[in-house]
Amino acid sequence: LEDAKMIPIAEPNLGEEELENIIDVVKSSWISSKGRYISKFEREFSKYCEVKQGVAVSNGTVALHLVLKSMGIGKGDEVIIPSLTFIATANAVSYCNAKPIFVDSHPDYWCMDSEKIKEKISDKTRAIIPVHLYGHPCDMDTITDLADDYGLYVIEDAAEAHGAEYKGRKTGSLGTVGCFSFYGNKLITTGEGGMCVTNDEELADRMRLLRDHAMSDDNTYWHSTIGFNYRMTNLQAAIGVAQLKKIDGFIERKRKIANRYSKGLNDLIGGDLIDIHPEMSWAKCVYWMYSILLEERDNLAKVLEKKEIDTRPFFYPMHYLPPYKNNEKFHVAERLSKVGINLPSSTVLKNKDVDRIVQVIREALS
Ligand SMILES: *Cc1c(COP(=O)(O)O)cnc(C)c1O
């Protein structure tokens, strides 16, 4: 009962259509990684992202790994990523025996600072992974221009930004490849799941090959190289197909929730509240996790917890964590990590829940 009362940070929004598709899959007995929902989900999600090819995989982390492997990135190579991200971005690079090179965040929109990338490019650099953090897109023109100048791949980590837009174009369509996650707390979910989307047909073919143990299409059990089992199941894809139908409604709801939080908190900025979730003029943010910045972040989290409202602190910068520790200084990322907090952001959240959370925050800060 206590759990039922708690307002969670994120909650999947599932309905009858997901259930119907699952029943359809079970009745068909195609519950594994063959079946019509997989290609349907790949087709429809890549189309939604305004991109030609979709390669569905078992989660967002392996989506990143599969892309890097398919690009031939390996030992001795460097890949530029923001320090402030979820660790999966860095780990995918490490799985390839390549080295993640960190960049500071931009103070205005919290993603990788595109002006600070150039100084990190070396003759070992092969790719840049911009991460559309908490639903806000990166400054993509600057990043892709730089990548063109130096002959680098751009891999968008769009795990937190399904449907977000940069200058009217969808995330996932802006670089060489876009990687998505469909984990339970993401904008749309398949339980666990992921997808790589790209217009590069050759790269998509390579990803499909490596996703399935690099097994030859016309010569069973002939494996040209070491591949992986990174396949998505038909059961997962069946949920994904149903979720995708509702994505525009989910985004609209996320934006309404964000707007309600912002309106309720806006006048506190400059006092105890440092800032609220930004949206740059060139961006359509999907507010995966609506977030605010404040000095007393940890105290606020405790107050909210007592009122049964769940929150999350921002990620630790990668250069603070044991596997990636170094002595670089990334002042913006370090500061954001210290003062940033995610508030409940589920699409199933009621207006009255948002209002209550706003009220508790206002009282805590007064
Ligand atoms: C969730 C997430 C991932 C990993 O996705 P999984 O499906 O959980 O493996 C990668 N990058 C970012 C930025 C994420 O938020």
Shape: globular
**Element order: H for helix, E for strand:** HHHEHEHEEHEEEEEHHHEEEHEHEH
The profile of the biggest β sheet is: 7 strands, mixed
Distance between the ends: 31 Å
What's the total number of strands? 14
How would you classify the quaternary structure?
A: single chain
| Rg, alpha carbons | 21 Å
Which distinct ligands sit in these coordinates? pyridoxal-5'-phosphate
pLDDT averaged over residues: 97
Task: Itemize the secondary structure elements and their pairings.
Layout (H helix, E strand, L loop, with lengths): L1 H4 L10 H13 L7 H13 L4 E5 L2 H11 L7 E5 L4 H9 L3 E5 L21 E4 L11 H11 L2 E5 L7 E2 L2 E2 L6 E5 L12 E5 L2 H11 L22 H12 L1 H19 L7 E4 L6 E2 L6 E4 L2 H10 L5 E2 L17 H9 E3 L8 H15 L1
Parallel strand pairs: 2-3, 2-4, 4-5, 5-8
Antiparallel strand pairs: 1-9, 6-7, 6-11, 8-9, 10-12, 12-14, 13-14
Helix pairs in contact: 2-8, 3-8, 4-5, 4-7, 9-12
The chain binds pyridoxal-5'-phosphate (PLP).
How would you characterize this protein structure?
Helix 5 links the parallel strand 2 and strand 3. The strands form three sheets. A seven-stranded mixed sheet has the order 1-9-8-5-4-2-3, with helices on both faces. The protein has twelve helices and 14 strands. The model has no long low-confidence stretch (mean pLDDT 97). The protein is globular. The relative contact order is 0.17. The longest helix has 19 residues. It is of the alpha/beta class and 366 residues long.
